[in-house]
Design goal:
Helix content is 71%, strand content 0%. It has 379 residues and is mainly alpha-helical. Helix 1 runs antiparallel to helix 3, helix 1 (7-33) packs antiparallel against helix 8 (142-157) and helix 8 (142-157) crosses helix 10. The chain is globular. The model is unreliable at 355-369 and 371-379 (pLDDT under 50). Pfam families: EXS. It is found in: Membrane. Keywords: Membrane, Receptor, Transmembrane, Transmembrane helix.
Length: 379
């Protein structure tokens, strides 16, 4: 029988599918308004994934995930161990990323692996925009890292796909490892900020930004202690670690929200009547920025609604956790639009936002003659 706890077996791949879908829409939006993401990410303009490639990849992984879920549900009819399906799906996705063959967008995959390598090696390398941008994406996918860690733990401890082994043990028993995995994305960005401070010797914005990620560590620590000792107190609200968690979570949320709006988006720099709370140069509609501010506030503070619903057992923990994870990916998708716009406008100010020039070979001699005659008429 399929139960709610089996959700975690496919949640990680599902989030990857959603992220690729939204990333494809991001790329389409950037190209539509003229934000030169290819220059910002320092990608070879002749070898990059277009929005259609990303949407196609998302669709392929969506089909594979759906087939895996169906295989899991009807495993008895197929006479195949049902826990083999999530593993096959994970291996397929991993092979796509690391396959060293000149197929399936090899250049783009190598670029991503290179950026991931530099990110994982922080703070030993200088930090480019692509490096810290990917780090921010990882911070919105902490739940994916936790799910993949639990799946790896489950398959290592249960190599023969026994139905009797409960995969929840990896979540319940490995408190310390789970905390370290949850801290990993924040640590990578924290280390990058320290490296940027070392290279530039500017306390702001680099140490200021590092402080934002530093607030994540005590938040996760007290969340871990709260869950580890929750059975030792008469009621949930008598747990002292609960109040420590709420305190640091509030600090982390306010810090992150302020940095998003003031730092990453560069808003609240103009008080003119026609664009109050915005900035001098904007690419999108003014209403979009006001929506962005409200949306970011609501999704940043969603945990205030989420937490008591789970604590008071009104909603299943896994369902609420899954909704929160999905909303965070959506928040990052919207964040991507304005963060790259802000970087693009900076490049414009530095005279670096040169548009890509695509030169296609002319194979039709009639077309060549037409273009030549047009040029002659023009002169």
């Amino acid at each position: 029988m399929v139960e709610v706890q089996h959700l975690v077996l496919f949640r990680g791949p599902f989030y990857v599918v959603v992220y690729l879908l939204l990333m494809g829409i991001n790329v389409y939006g950037w190209r539509r308004v003229g934000v030169n993401h290819i220059l910002i990410f320092e990608i070879d303009p002749r070898k990059h994934l277009t929005y259609s490639h990303l949407l196609e990849l998302s669709a392929i992984f969506a089909v594979l995930t759906a087939l895996s879920v169906l295989g899991f549900i009807y495993a008895k009819n197929l006479h195949i161990p049902r826990f083999s399906f999530p593993l096959i799906l994970l291996i397929t996705m991993a092979l796509y990323l690391i396959l060293p063959l000149p197929i399936f967008h090899l250049d783009s995959r190598l670029w991503l692996l290179k950026v991931m390598g530099r990110l994982m090696a922080a703070p030993f390398f200088s930090v480019s925009f692509a490096d810290f941008w990917l780090g921010d994406q990882f911070n919105s996918m902490t739940i994916v890292f936790a799910d993949f860690k639990n799946l790896l733990c489950f398959y290592v401890r249960n190599p023969f796909f026994s139905e009797n082994y409960k995969h929840q043990k990896c979540e319940v028993e490995d408190f310390a490892i789970n905390a370290c995995v949850s801290c990993l994305p924040a640590w990578l960005r924290f280390a990058q900020c320290l490296r940027q401070y070392r290279d530039n010797r500017k306390s702001h914005p680099y140490l200021t930004n590092a402080g934002k990620y530093a607030t994540v560590f005590p938040t996760i620590l007290f969340a871990t202690l709260m869950n580890a000792y929750r059975d030792e107190y008469e009621t949930f609200f008598k747990n002292p670690f609960l109040w420590c968690f709420i305190c640091f979570k509030m600090i982390s949320t306010i810090y992150g929200l302020a940095w998003d709006i003031l730092g990453d988006f560069g808003l609240f720099k103009v008080c003119k009547k026609d664009r109050i709370f915005l900035r001098e140069d904007v690419i999108y509609s003014k209403n979009f920025y006001y929506f962005l501010i409200i949306e970011n506030c609501v999704l940043r503070f969603f945990w205030i609604f989420d937490f008591p619903m789970v604590a008071l057992s009104y909603v299943n923990f896994r369902i609420m956790e899954s909704i929160s994870g999905l909303l965070e990916i959506i928040r990052r998708y919207i964040w991507n639009y304005v963060r790259l716009e802000n970087e693009h406008l900076y490049n414009v100010g530095q005279y670096r936002a040169v548009r890509d020039i695509f030169i296609a070979p002319l194979e039709d001699f009639d077309e060549l003659e037409d273009k030549t005659s047009e040029n002659n008429n023009f002169h």
